[in-house]
Design brief:
single chain, mainly alpha, elongated, Homeodomain-like domain-containing protein, WH-like_DNA-bd_sf
Length: 71
């Protein structure tokens, strides 16, 4: 079983401490994966609008959050 699988399972734990800690860990993982994929999309020539559409956010929101990746 992978760490991600364990954390995902722990997120539904009846123990609030374990469940909330797992939710926090998943949030960190989600942010990391999103940044990785936004950088990948930009490297492949995707526009901010294309990325925003897939993420279901505004173009401005995704650009504001990830424009530093352009440097």
């Amino acid at each position: 079983m992978t760490d991600a699988t364990r954390v995902t399972a722990a997120a539904s734990s009846p123990d609030p401490h374990e469940g909330l800690a797992a939710v926090a860990a998943l949030r960190v993982l989600q942010e990391s994966l999103e940044e990785l994929q936004v950088a990948n999309a930009r490297r492949l020539g995707w526009s901010w609008q294309q990325i925003a559409a897939v993420l279901q956010v505004s173009k401005q929101a995704v650009h504001r959050k990830y424009r530093r990746l352009e440097r």
